[in-house]
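Batch manifest line 452
LIGAND: XIL
JOB: complex structure
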Amino acid sequence: MKLTSRSVSLIPLVATVAAAVLGASLIVTATANAATTLGAAAAQSGRYYGTAVAAGKLGDSTYVNILNTEFNMVTAENEMKWDATEPNRGQFNYSGGDRILNQAVGNGKRVRGHALLWHQQQPGWAQGLSGSDLRQAAINHVTQVATHYRGKIYAWDVVNEAFADGGSGGRRDSNLQRTGNDWIEAAFRAARAADPAAKLCYNDYNTDGINAKSTGIYNMVRDFKSRGVPIDCVGLQAHLTNNAPSDMQANIQRFADLGVDVQITELDIAGSNQANAYGAVTRACLAVARCTGITVWGIRDSDSWRTGENPLLFTSSGAKKAAYNSVLDALNAGGPGPTTTTTTTTTTTTTTTDPVPGGCTASVSLNQWNGGFVATIKVTAGSSALRGWRVTTTLSSGTVTSSWSANGSGTSGTVNWTNVDYNANVPAGQSTEFGFQGNGSGSGLNPSCAAS
Ligand code: XIL
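JOB STATUS: finished
ARTIFACT:
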């Protein structure tokens, strides 16, 4: 605003100055609230913003400066794939993957593991295998690589691109698929056993909106959940041109509703509507609490695997593009944070132990998640009223951290729980409940009840 016009009288000039100052202070306030990097902006809602990294570029200072400033999650672009990590059968090479992981962790970033099994970028020796020999080699690969990186990976793409394009909604033909339809669940079980802390994802492309392919994956995840096959997340690669699918948010939501996290794992967008489309993808993720983060597939346009399409957030010389501002603005506009509900299974086992005729029985309802549990124990009186009771549980690996409505004799191994004053009396055939929370596993509690 120009304040020097000689025709401006004193009073309007004062008013103008006041308005200018007010305007300035409003801008300052807005700036103070907005994060200025992608990672910090995503973190405001508990999410991450990541990029694919190539080990060979870690000596490029422009690349590394942007990486360290903007991103707080890293995926190895090629270095953790099967051909890189097991070039000869049973001989593992983690040099490139470790380099990327150490650079990331050393700069406070987390790492997505990509990818344990895929029909592409297999070493030649695996391409030549089939049947049970290939199955055994594949599962061993999952076990070895996930064990090497145990405890260091936020989420693994356990299986990549196993579904067919087109309308079938079925699996893609591949040497892995020909070992039997259960190869995916075998891989997930092996990954869980090797690294129980990593989230385990299924990752694919052309699955960003609702279509036959994403529905095939949806049905697989639902089946895995119903049968207790370990799966924690679905990756939508999001290699796009011009637009985000209009039903991307709905697609993310339907996966979230199955009880898995969703991540945008390899985002790049070509075309003249790029900036708008980047904003739309960001908003689709932010709108779903279980969409936990977004990863772009490279830093500068010159780093992209889509040569000549310029689909990334930075120009080849490292300048921020309009698409960058579109993402940053959308992240700063916020959204509900990722859910903190990490419950994975709820099972109920009932024991029929009744050591005293007319005594009592106990059953447990277990709410188990990765790393902890809540056990709710129901004490039911037999044919006579209880005047006091004792329940014995066995914690084979977990530890009790808190309890309610009973006194415990310890926190691990065999624990005896006795009633408190207000729940000692239980009429014949009636029930009372107590509970405890713990770390680790609450499976195998096997409660038994005795009148006391
Ligand atoms: C790409 C890499 O970016 C290229 O450097 C490599 O030559 C081929 O693979 N889906 C995936 C990624 O899951 O691993 C692919 O990465 C891109 C498509």
